[in-house]
Amino acid sequence: MIKTLLKLLCLFMLGAIFHVRPIYAAGSTLSVEQLYNHIKDDPLKLRVFLRDFPKGGDLNNHLVGAIYAETWLKWAGEDGLCVSISKAKILPSPCGVVTHNEQPAQNLGKDLSAWSHMVAALSMRDFVPMVGDRSAHDHFFGTFTRFAAVEKHHQGDMLAKALQQAARDHVIYIEIAVSPALSAMINIEGRPKLEKKSDLSAVHEKLLPVLGSLTKLAQQDITEMEKQAHQKLHCGEKDEDPACQIEVRYLFQTSRNLPLISILTQLEVGYFLTKNDSRFVGVTLSGYEDDPEALDHYKLQMEMFHFLNGIYPAVNIVLPAGELTANLVSPENLTSHIRDAIDIAGAQRIGQAMDILHEDDSSSLLEKLADHNILVELNLTRNEKILNIRGNEHPFTIYRQSLVPVAFISDNEGILRSDLTEQYSLAAKQFRLNYGDLIKLSRVSLEYAFVPGKSLWVKHNLGHKVMSCNREIVSIKPSKKCASYLKQNQKAALEWRLELALKDFAKDEIHKSILSKAH
């Protein structure tokens, strides 16, 4: 009874939590909240408004999926690679004999039909089934092999592109999912057998001798990638790209669709790096959850995380779970993936989580997500294009009503032909969000980022500053006490930076409104 009353009280307060007073308004001038209300039903004006809106953090950007099809084809041309039109794929070598079906990538722009075909093949643009596709779901997950031949020699280019897009989205912090030294990890010699939970300890012991060399290779890959990206962005130079100002961290990623031993090998390296290299802040999974082998081994994969949590404690975990529908899997596979990701693997953040209401005792699971402050990461474009879930069928409102923290991510923005701005725009339109809701979403994205240090806010109570800064007006020169706190806590410093950006954004929007009235 008490829990029910508390829940009702929280729901009653929801409006107050989401409401943001027009504190930046001056005199009779419209506040930024009123400006938003004025343009929110105009898609074009809403897009422009939200493009410039400060979005805090992007907590899951899959680097390999962040690149647009046109860019892959451009790089393939620069590398002298061949494109197979019939296979809808970039080949790993130059063309032998040039035919209508096999053309040099550098010539593809001269054939509009072939160019359009390949752009569609490498992305979700104007989806129609191609070779090997049965659905949009299959097409999305099939794209990764179609441009794989280009990845190896363009890691720095990829990072630079991802950061430039993040800058356009007005993001100040990003967590990028990467799989460095992948080939070395899936091709280690004398791979031990891994078939069940009881094998984990023995396999771990057999992996220890190669762990150091694999870790070194992964670090070298990241260092070289960053070096190349910084050169392209002119970081540290007078003409540096705005993307250089984004705080970057990495999630070590493995695919749930690899052999079990390859998954554990990568996770071992990922856990070790997260404990010993400050550039890495967590581990994650990728791949399609409804793959038959991934379904069969789901609990064992969760047990891998549980096992490694005992060896490398306090490593952050974000797991995509529940990206399933009754159309994709049988009923028994809809009942526990999200709960297992939390209870067995120990995930602090969950990705997508579309089947929440299909899980056993979903009400208690929602309570657990809220009570334990477990964030749900969402990409509305992905949910619609892959699972055909949008609007009233989407659990976004369920999560909000249950007080579960939610943040939008860019995910595989190149393949999806989307961006973080679109996620805010779709949410604003589909769920009738007010300006306070947008600010809360932006703040949440940093509050649940895997950034070291304490928060600017008291116990996740966004808008209520900690004692060291509680009487402060947001400015570039906080008091000595507050400045000291921000210096000691990187998360709080980023959150303060977001508050400054929100303040500046409000002033700029009001100024633009005044100028437009003057004309």
UniProtKB/TrEMBL annotation:
Residues annotated as signal peptide: none
EC class name: hydrolase
Keywords: Hydrolase, Metal-binding, Zinc
Xref: InterPro entries: A_deaminase_dom, Ado/ade_deaminase, Metal_Hydrolase
Cofactor(s) for this UniProt protein: Zn(2+)
Domain named Adenosine deaminase: residues: 159-454
GO biological process: adenosine catabolic process; hypoxanthine salvage; inosine biosynthetic process
Listed Gene3D superfamilies: Metal-dependent hydrolases
One Gene Ontology term of the molecular function aspect: metal ion binding
GO annotations of cellular component type: cytosol
SUPFAM superfamilies given in the database record: Metallo-dependent hydrolases
Enzyme Commission identifier(s): 3.5.4.4
Similarity comment: Belongs to the metallo-dependent hydrolases superfamily. Adenosine and AMP deaminases family.
PANTHER family: ADENOSINE DEAMINASE (PTHR11409:SF43)
Protein name in UniProt: adenosine deaminase
